[in-house]
Amino acid sequence: MPFRLERRAEPATAMVALSPLIAVALTIVTMAALFAALGKDPLAALQVYFIVPLTDTYSLQEIAVKASPLVMIAVGLSLCYRANVWNIGAEGQLLIGAMAGSWLAVATHGTNTGPWLLPAMLLLGAAAGALYALIPALCKIRFGASEILISLMLVYVAEFALDYLVRGPWRDPAGFNFPTTAEFDAAATMPLLIAGSRLHAGVILGVLLVIGAAVLLGRTLKGFEIRVVGAAPRAAQFAGFDADRLTLTTFAISGALAGLAGIIEVAGPIGHLQPGISPGYGFTAIIVAFLGRLDPLAILAAGLFLALTFIGGEQAQIALKIPQDMAKVIQGVLLFYVLACDSLILYRVRRTAAHRKAA
Amino acid sequence: MLEAILLSIVTASTPLLLAASGELVTERAGVLNLGVEGMMIIGAACGFGGAWLTGSTMVGALCGIAAGMALAALFAAMTIGLAVNQVAAGLALTILGTGLAGLIGLGFVGERITAAPHLAIPGLTDLPMVGKLVFGQDPLVYVSLGLIAAIPFVLARTRAGLVLRAAGDNAAAAHALGYDVAKIRTLAVLFGGGCAGLAGAYLPLAYTPFFAPGMTAGRGWIALALVVFASWRPARLMAGAYLFGAVSILQLHAQAFGIGLPSQLMSALPYLATVIVLVLISRVRRGGSVAPAALGTAFVPDR
């Protein structure tokens, strides 16, 4: 091989801050090349993707609305990944949270409820998401089963469960046989921040959760535990930190946040339960978590960036007929660049001696 | 009726067996490639594309293999070349593969191809019951069986197999003996990618004669679970793949008979079965792990 990796004596401090920015820059260059390959004008396409959505208030609000679930889920996942356990089933936990919260909205539909309804829905969503995430966590600590595969398998199970509910028992009888519940009552929907917009209170909640996670991780013993167990498992053992309990805790928190994001989506922008309530938020949030280098405040920025690509992607599809699958390609490429750049924090790339001589 | 069910079980099991065989070799070399689903779907898209353009199943299969290997090469460059976290890189590979397959698939929406030809040996294929089952499958079924017969032999009885296992169990020792761990692991990842690509291509070539973006439907993830289920042993892998093929076919027949359960519950069965099997197999093994010792860890030699 012409190149080899060499461990740096000290992590490169400049790369710590620069790596996400380099990754984003490389992604944009790659996007330009992909657009050119599709026969589109790369500059015009990039403008539609990244500039146009920032110029009108509707798109700016939409970015906040889309970023809110991404950030919420990514913050939870970052706790898991820091503790070196792998919850990749956030999409399933999101769906379960949405279903559990919706149950209350469907059950009380058309009756006179109080202001307790919405908070109860959110709590139920978070609790259900946490319980669903505890399944892979328990299987891991009790039986040593792979939490990666089990959490992912449960995504498919959750999708079928949602499909069953909205086609079966919860289908709106007045809905012309469409697989959807009835539109939620006003008491069961998220209050809007600006009347007539889609900007809902969940966005504020997302920001509050980011601050909460930052405090938890940086200023509490639990946060210290999470960081030590992930970075130095043996040291954590000597310190008496219980890795199994931490697996349960981080899975429960990430599941709760994913479930909360799910019920907020349903009670907020969508307004009823139906299949396809999430355009893969649970998976995109994994990218957000890594782009934010598993740091809550940086995740906020990363979430806004990926939300921008969602909105930009929609507009590019309308304006330039750029296929929707392009968004997934971009997300995959971005994650690769982020990981590669992060690797350069710990390692440097050197040419091997044999090739230096030949050159 | 029974013969038809058995035949469809073979067809359902073959992509699982192909993908899991490749992943088993990759993992025995110490690399956990979670991107099987992505390599399968890109194999399906390119496999269909190749067969549709040329009318040849063979070309389609080769296109699928090439596409799977191309994604695997990217994965190898990341995880072996740059020592990137293998779990995250595998997820990136799945996301990228799904997106690319969707883009490629736009080229042939609604197109169909003729299914792969089946073996026909006069006399033998016409035997009652066993004839079609043993002598009347499509060529890729025999390829998958050949692979699963060859892999244990190569792993256990050849020098190449021994070196590959050394890279997976103790990379530092293999390196100290003068073996190029990076090269061995790269080759193993490429083999896994080729198998996953072929497994994906099998779906449009022999299972359903068209391409749909979500057509792998989690089979790549089930293949990953099968490797765990098989305890990294090829012989058990075959039993596992056919067991899962049977579950996915029988739930379809159960739905057709209209037993009183919701169809969604039946559709979720293969995924639920995977969870249960993973738990049971891990529980049995509690105490001594049989996974390759260096599985999932990057190896960067200190000089």
From TrEMBL, chain A:
One of its GO terms (cellular component) is plasma membrane. Its main location: membrane. It is a multi-pass membrane protein. The chain crosses the membrane at residues 12-38, 58-81, 93-110, 116-135, 147-166, 199-217, 246-267, 273-291, 298-320, 326-347. Pfam families: BPD_transp_2. Keywords: Cell membrane, Membrane, Transmembrane, Transmembrane helix. PANTHER family: ABC TRANSPORTER, PERMEASE PROTEIN, GUANOSINE ABC TRANSPORTER PERMEASE PROTEIN NUPP. It comes from the Bacteria. One of its GO terms (molecular function) is transmembrane transporter activity. InterPro entries: ABC_transp_permease. It is found in: Cell membrane. This is ABC transporter permease.
Automatic annotation (TrEMBL), chain B:
GO terms for cellular component: plasma membrane. Keywords: Cell membrane, Membrane, Transmembrane, Transmembrane helix. The chain crosses the membrane at residues 29-52, 59-81, 87-109, 140-156, 187-205, 211-232, 239-259, 265-281. Coiled coil: none annotated. It comes from the Bacteria. It is a multi-pass membrane protein. The keyword Metal-binding does not apply. One of its GO terms (molecular function) is transmembrane transporter activity. It is found in: Cell membrane. Pfam families: BPD_transp_2. PANTHER family: ABC TRANSPORTER PERMEASE PROTEIN, SUGAR ABC TRANSPORTER INTEGRAL MEMBRANE PROTEIN-RELATED. This is ABC transporter permease. It comes from Rhodopseudomonas palustris.
